[in-house]
Design goal:
Helix content: 55-70%
Number of helices: 13
Bound molecules: Phenylacetyl coenzyme A
Radius of gyration: 21 Å
Largest sheet: 2 strands, antiparallel
Structural class: mainly alpha
Shape: globular
Amino acid sequence: MYSQALNTASAPADTSDAAARFQVRIDAEERIEPNDSMPEQYRRTLIRQISQHAHSEIVGMLPEGNWITRAPSLRRKAALLAKVQDEGGHGLYLYAAAETLGQSREELVEQLLSGRAKYSSIFNYPTLSWADIGTIGWLVDGAAIMNQIPLCRCSYGPYARAMIRICKEESFHQRQGYEIMLTLCRGTAEQKSMAQDALNRWWWPCLMMFGPPDTQSQHSDTSMRWKIKRFTNDALRQKFVDATVPQGLHLGLTFPDPALRFDGGHWVFGEIDWDEFRRVLAGDGPCNRERLAARRQAHEDGAWVREAARAWAAKQKVAA
Ligand code: FAQ
């Protein structure tokens, strides 16, 4: 199947002419829209990436949601509540973007709950102290922004447009996280050591968020050719390290990497433990089971809402 057509059950076969015409549009920086002709592999790549991204936002609500009732002040609680709610909203825009490619949200959610779909490795780590909430905002949202700003220029229109609003909100999240870290680092010795402990635990997993090294990334070449991705995994990881190390030094914190050094242009960092990354992706991270169990429970608990919405829609149809 070559051209994707939302309103028809089947589409014409792939031809090299069609593929070449598509590439010309991409190279000319034209935006691809839902009813445009597109290679089947382009459509599948987008569904894969956008749905994994949506699942990450939804599962990503869990580690921080865990601290809403324990935030140290009303101001912190209100900000955290708003942030976690934003992440839920991001998941919804992204599921909607994936639906424009002809995949139903129900099917995507089923893939997540059955454990067949991936979501970001970072959300399989526990949030042990309040400093983890600061660190997530500073580093996890910081890494997400670094990865997602280029996605605002993704060749697929609905994804690119969703990313514009998401990035604005992520930027607020990053600032609230850094402000928590500043407060802790200017506080008591105990508060500063909480901040240091959180950085020690989150730093390496955050570097893994950018995906495997370029030499092992299966999808980067095609995604870059189609301008879905604008930078490789390693390029974005380096940009993140270069932007973040000075922020950590300003906080007076030490990065848990004895090999970290400035070479005059970039911050050179040590070896990432890719075995740990593979273990987390295989479902064996510290919280994989807990995260999926929580999502399944939430889905079950929400069954009555879906039923009520269906009943309401049916009544509206009869009334119309
Ligand atoms: N975790 O060939 P590549 C957030 C998988 S949102 C798990 O390099 P690609 C907001 C990859 O899917 C965070 N799996 O793949 C927030 C592929 O598997 P597959 C999520 C990973 O797609 C903040 C395989 O490895 N952001 O944080 C990971 O070209 C705070 C081979 O990899 C996005 O999803 C990983 N870290 O590049 C929420 C952004 N890395 O599908 C709450 C959009 C790789 O073959 C609180 N996505 N894999 O089975 C992307 O930019 C890309 O998909 C990459 C991976 C860069 C993640």
